[in-house]
Amino acid sequence: MDSGAGIDADDACVWTERLGWAFGLIAEDPVARGAALIHLAEAQRKAADALARYNEMWLLTRPLGTDERYREPAFLRARWRHGQAQKRSLPDGVWGGPANGDLATWPGLPYVLLFLEWEARYPLEWTQHAKAWGTKQSLIRKVARARHEEATKAKLTDLVEVIVHRAYRCKDREYVRVARAVDSADLRHRLERAADSDSPWARCHAGYVLWLLDRPDLPNTRRVWRSWVAGGAASLL
Questions:
Q1: C-alpha radius of gyration, the chain, whole number
Q2: Sequence-distant (≥ 6) Cβ neighbours of residue 176 within 8 angstroms
Q3: Any idea where the domains of the chain sit in the sequence?
């Protein structure tokens, strides 16, 4: 295996080496975001090239059979290089999760939050360069299930506030899970302000989240959401 094999270690320094550049994607400075987008495009190109080589080696080693293929050094090298290239790109780099299942202490958590914040604050750039609705949904559900420290709860509270103020985007309804997980007086105050704002989107979204926070047993289903949007929330009681 290549000399860089040790980079598979799952610690904060390794994550910084792989994806530290990605924080530029959520920078307020458009120049910084532009530089990060250029870096992302190159990372995605390398991942695509590595995948092509992996697929090529898959075909070349097909006659060997499965057992022999996974003992073939050239195939294993191509497979490893593809995995490493994925870890340096988005959305691939935030797939998976901690080996011990504890997302709250996982060194990859800041990058999961980064990916969600990028979609929340710069949705057009996210859609153009790394659209992955399934990944968005999976990450929201994962962070909603974890037991987080206060700093992470504050970040998630900020995300919920951003989401309710904008026009609905695919999988935004999943943030109800997050709101329920980090429910607090601060969050409810922000949602109440949004529900009283001049924005029809904010009134609808924030009102829906507040309504469900007061009804923890009511499922956050598509039917419930559609009924709320149609103004039929009273009929669900």
A1: 21
A2: 208, 209, 212, 220
A3: 7-131, 148-237
